[in-house]
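Researcher: Good morning. I'm working through a list of sequences from a screen, and I'd like to move beyond sequence-only analysis. For each chain I'm collecting a predicted structure so we can compare shapes side by side. This is the next one on the list. No need for commentary yet; just the structure.
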Amino acid sequence: MSIENTPTVYPKQNFTDTNLDTSATKTILASLQKLTEGIITLDKRLSSYRSARFLSSVSEIYPKTKTVIFAGGSNFGDNVKYAYLSFLGEANKVGASCYYLPYNSSQYNQLKACGLPCLPDALSEYTPDDIRVCLGAKVLVLDNHFVPHNWKHHLPHSLLRGAKTIQLWHGIPIKEIGLETVATAKIDDPNTVEIMASCGPFDVFVATSAVSQTEWARKFSFNAFSTAGYPRNDVLLRDINASDKINVDTKTLALIEAASKKKQPIVFYAPTFRDKSGGAWFFKAEISKFADYCAKNDYLFFVNMHPAEQETVASFRQRYPEINFVEPYSDVYPLVKHADVLVTDYSSLAFDFLLLDRPIVFYRPDHADYIARSRHLIKNHDQYLCGEVTSALTELTKAIDIAVGVCTKADTDLYRSARQSLRHRLFDYQDAFASRRLNDLIASLLDSAP
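Model: Good morning. Structure tokens for this chain:
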């Protein structure tokens, strides 16, 4: 017999006298407990996923009623807020009902306190009537990605799959978004893929100009295109009413309105978020020093962090007591209405501000890092710049002084022609009736065939 074919003989082991120490035993038992809990959780999630898939199919065949659902985002503001409040006043005229789908318990409590119709925020609170409302909804109005962000939100997402969709989005972007980012996105991340899959197709995509249709088609998929405009911009061009003030930082609004009456210059800073730096970029941008400069020159200065970074405000307030921060997750449009100068970097708020025809200053102290680590900008993005572009604090303070001076000496405004030209290109309508046009669009979908 060859050596290769000789079976290996192992010495007999005797485990009867082997004693595991107590700590090792406890560690093994704890690990087994965690493993068991993990398996149970995974099984529940898989069951939820299967249920969600079947509910989506049910929603697609369920008889529809003249019901409209407005899906909220991280704050009760933006286009969905104003679209919802406007359609509430028109619903009875067209024989429809409408509800707001809250993003969290804070929104739910806020709307219920105002007596406004909304669905529960917790699955445990859904009644059979709530489920029927969702299943029967004929129109779903969005202004963001609509995804089951976590397992808590899968039910309304599934129940509304059969509704016709109107996508308002939340602003004219200067950054690459939506389908443009697929090639560079982390496609091995389930959450990222889920977001990409929510880029359409929408029944109607609402924008602000006909010439932008081709540009939007590179970002989202849609069956029809509307230039009704953004409902949130209506408040910039008309008087503020009581419902507009829901979820508004009323303390800041009072300060701004008082400053406006006494002609004190109001400078509003609205930066976008950074994907990778957290709030570290804010310190490097020397905003604290800029706040001191504004105070010395009697400019009323406010900072509104992007919704994706508003969790930093609590700590920033402690670190920068000299800065006036707008209350996190509140609606800024009634505040922006009174601003004399807007300071931003890449935010779409700059384009909304064009409707007011007031100076805009772009402050980009970390531009190279931003486009390298956060977001790519669209091609020919420079054509969207209609104000002084600064990258250092000294440049910013100089540009602000000039912009404030423009408020009293319009003939010194070097960028007015550029702003007006861009405004006419980006907005087919420059009025306060976007909500009315959207109401008509919703009504037409409600009356359309299933």
